[in-house]
Predict the 3D structure of the following.
Amino acid sequence: MRRRDVLRTTAIAGAATVLTLEGVSSAHAHADGPVRTAGEETRTLTGRLPAGAPDFVHLPVDVPRGVREIAVSYTYDKPPVPPGTLGNACDIGIFDERGTAPGGPGFRGWSGGARTEFAISAERATPGYLPGPIHPGTWHVILGPYTVAPQGMAYEVRVTLRYGRQGTTPEPVYPPRRARGRGRAWYRGDNHLHSVHSDGLRTPAEIAAAARAAGLDWITTTEHNTTSAHAAWQGLWGDDLLILTGEEVTTRNGHVLALGTDPGVLIDWRYRARDDLFGRFARRIRQTGGMVVPAHPYGSCVGCNWKFGYEHADAVEVWNGTWTPDDEMAVANWDAMLAASVTSGGRWLPAMGNSDAHREPQVVGLPQTVVLADDLSHDALLAGLRAGRSWIAESGAIDLTFTATDARGGHAGLGERLRTDAPTTLRLTTKGVSGCTASFITDQGTAFTAPIPADGTLEWHTTPARSAYVRAEIRRPSGSMAALTNPVFLESRR
């Protein structure tokens, strides 16, 4: 393969460049030539990317008529690097003859760095990839050099074209948008999960079984930069478990949950904060029925820190998996945003917690978000999450209520606003948190802390003049979080 030596900035990439290399042509690529009906041929593409390579490298592949399956494998070198220096890591995906435009129809799959090979045909595809007809034209294998060693990255991509009669593409079967539920009630969900369709090791069946064991009412499938899992849950939902579709949009400047988007809808990930494009894709998430939820904003992995701001967010994931210092920072920043919203009179962002479980021993439902919804349906759950009528639990063994009541009988629950000038009582009632300590936190900071008594109930008194909002945290003796709530807002009538 010869390098074309062309660096071009696409409409999607903005300030981040995309490198397009010269691809390979099949020996049978001519449209007016005979159609091959059997056998296979393999072409190898090799090259070296320098340190500071573009975010994405397009390798064009001419696909002739008669191809029934495309198989791709790749390798790259991993030279030793000095201590503290990032070595080579490279993602991979593919777009078909319809092109590589952001949000366009050409997407056929992405596995990031989770797989070294994949195959696509009309009737089936490797998890992470979409089955469908193999039409002739120029396809693109896309490499994503996530980190590049100082020595550069040497890569080899092998593309095998297998000829023959194409099969039939199965009609995808997607989960329903509603389950039986319990009417207006508190429902428990885990909205950040990974299976074999991205970098997880669990199958959808194993995730569904773990969700039921955790006492969850609903889950959301959120694979990295692919929708292939949306049709992988047939037979796994039921009256007791609702499954929503979504995506973890994994950019170089942070990850965002596209929570509850319509089945089959892909949200593009090929941009950075400096490109000023996130608002466009946040609108796309909402247009397709979803919520915009920045995930693990202080995550320690490369590219995990959230750098797009919160202007376009609908909620924020402040607790991701087992409690860590990253979550402590996320809660502190979220609380600061709550205080700022009170000062400015602007909107506030509800908090969420999810497991981000990929494999054993990561626990599905640790943590889980508990939301008050009118029924167990896509629309009702997302409405409850957007309103902040929710709290986060370490497990299904924990339960709580948190309310504000004034001396005149006024009442408000989580995410709600109590307008009053009377003395107000905040009441926390808990179960399953023996030995823990509860704190009531306001816009001034922690205002009240006490061990949870045997009956599980604590009360604290305040007024809107003292506290613009109050939220609760429950912690283990180690300091790790057992549960936390969204706030109740207090507002003077004057």
About this structure: The chain has three domains: 6-163, 171-396, 399-494.
